């Protein structure tokens, strides 16, 4: 008999309960308008001074063509130009080529259109997710928290067009997980790996959120199948597009991250993004339901491999972890502001999205 006490913190004996909240047309319209304002401001003003600076157009275009032929520019290796492992992140690259040809716009403009569109899409999806647990006011607080950290995602590299679409697909996967649509999870998971393989471990969240003493065999088998799919997609890409991966020196990478942490002090981007989120999540996670707890735990666990294997100051790569922590963080913030009255909505089963007039 397995010892399940270790998983008691996740409340594994309880099923994932549906939210009692609904999302009306007026809410979505309001969120869409706010999303447009946030997106255009971030993309044009913050992005215009960083990754979309005209000075980078040549390099971004050269990087696109290099990825299309799987050959690093100027006779260098992918590692030489700080692009280790990006040669298989091809979903957005091919999408940009399609937009470029279909709309007869430059490659630079095609990437700008795609990144702007997917950034805008994350706002209503995130709002819908937050409405599983919170009323409109606190869902908007979560949306503003997300918006406040987004400027940090524009720095430290001039070409990372897959981050916005990847985050969008993470949100879609979380919504499908809540609905327990396993076939759709598999389809979206394979697509997400083609966009950015950081989503490889998502099946682990499925297991944490769904397993209990009654269904552990079925859920574990489903999780294994999803892992097989994600890793098969990943290694299939590496076989089809070889040469993009150099050996990683974990010790050196940890030293690099510690030095960056010491040099930036309180301005260290992960501290600014995850410091408050982790504190608030610690306060609020026990007030949430099964899915919120699983998301928070999984988000914390995923930060560990990022710290030991990647430049941790590049917060753009950590946004899926922030999204996973956000519901618990909002619950904690609400508990501090409204002590004793901050129960999340986890009781009456209703559809994920119930629009007025349907």
What can you see in these coordinates?
- This protein is mainly α and 358 residues long.
- The chain is 62% helix and 0% strand.
- The chain has 13 helices and no strands.
List key phrases describing it:
single chain, 358 residues, mainly alpha, disordered C terminus
- The whole-number mean of residue pLDDT values reads 89
Segments where pLDDT lies below 50 for 5+ residues? 1-7, 12-21, 346-358
Structure summary, number of beta strands: 0
How far the N terminus sits from the C terminus, by CA atoms, comes to 48 Å
What is the percent of helical residues? Answer: 55-70%
Rg is 21 Å
> What gross morphology would you assign?
globular
Number of helices: 13
In short:
The protein is mostly helical and 358 residues long.
Outline the secondary-structure elements.
Elements: H1 25-46, H2 57-69, H3 91-103, H4 107-130, H5 136-149, H6 163-179, H7 182-195, H8 202-210, H9 216-240, H10 250-264, H11 269-284, H12 290-309, H13 319-337
Helix pairs in contact: 1-4, 3-4, 4-5, 4-6, 5-13, 6-7, 7-9, 8-9, 8-12, 11-13, 12-13
């Amino acid at each position: 008999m397995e010892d399940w006490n270790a998983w008691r913190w996740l409340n594994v004996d309880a099923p994932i309960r549906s939210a009692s909240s609904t999302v009306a047309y007026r809410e979505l319209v309001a969120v869409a308008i706010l999303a447009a304002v946030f997106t255009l401001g971030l993309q044009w003003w913050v992005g215009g001074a960083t990754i979309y600076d005209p000075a980078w157009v040549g390099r971004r275009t050269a990087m696109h063509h290099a990825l299309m032929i799987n050959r690093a520019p100027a006779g260098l290796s992918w590692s030489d130009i700080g692009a280790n492992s990006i040669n298989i992140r091809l979903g957005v690259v091919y999408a940009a080529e399609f937009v470029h040809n279909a709309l007869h716009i430059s490659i630079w403009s095609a990437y700008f259109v795609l990144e702007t569109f997917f950034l805008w899409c994350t706002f209503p999806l995130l709002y819908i997710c937050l409405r599983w647990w919170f009323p409109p006011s606190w869902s908007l607080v979560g949306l503003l928290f997300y918006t406040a950290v987004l400027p940090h995602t524009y720095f430290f590299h001039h070409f990372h067009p897959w981050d916005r679409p990847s985050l969008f697909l993470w949100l879609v996967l979380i919504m499908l997980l809540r609905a327990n649509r396993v076939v759709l999870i598999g389809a979206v998971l394979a697509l997400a790996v083609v966009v950015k393989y950081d989503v490889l471990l998502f099946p682990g969240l499925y297991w944490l959120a769904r397993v209990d003493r009654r269904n552990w065999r079925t859920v574990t088998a489903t999780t294994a199948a999803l892992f097989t799919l994600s890793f098969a997609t990943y290694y299939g890409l590496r076989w089809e597009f070889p040469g993009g991966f150099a050996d990683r020196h974990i010790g050196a990478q940890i030293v690099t991250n510690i030095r960056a942490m010491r040099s930036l002090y309180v301005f260290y981007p992960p501290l600014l993004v995850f410091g408050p989120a982790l504190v608030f999540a610690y306060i609020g996670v026990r007030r949430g339901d099964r899915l919120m707890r699983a998301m928070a735990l999984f988000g914390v666990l995923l930060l560990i491999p990022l710290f030991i294997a990647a430049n941790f100051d590049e917060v753009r790569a950590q946004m899926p972890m922030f999204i996973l922590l956000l519901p618990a963080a909002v619950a904690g913030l609400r508990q501090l502001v409204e002590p004793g009255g901050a129960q999340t909505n986890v009781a009456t089963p209703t559809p994920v999205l119930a629009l007025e007039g349907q």
